[in-house]
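It would be a great kindness if you could assist me with a short task in structural biology. The full record is reproduced below for your convenience:
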Amino acid sequence: MFDSIRTHKKYLMAFLLILIVPSFVLFGIQGFTRMVQHGETVATVDGHD
């Protein structure tokens, strides 16, 4: 089994890349949308929220 992994490293890396990259993209989009959303105002300074 380990011999097949050793001989097919490129395929294994591509497979892992296909699994890992979309999760980073989805969590990045989720974090960005959470950052962009405006919550309720906590304080007002000189008339600005």
About this structure: DSSP finds two helices and no strands in the chain. The mean pLDDT is 86.
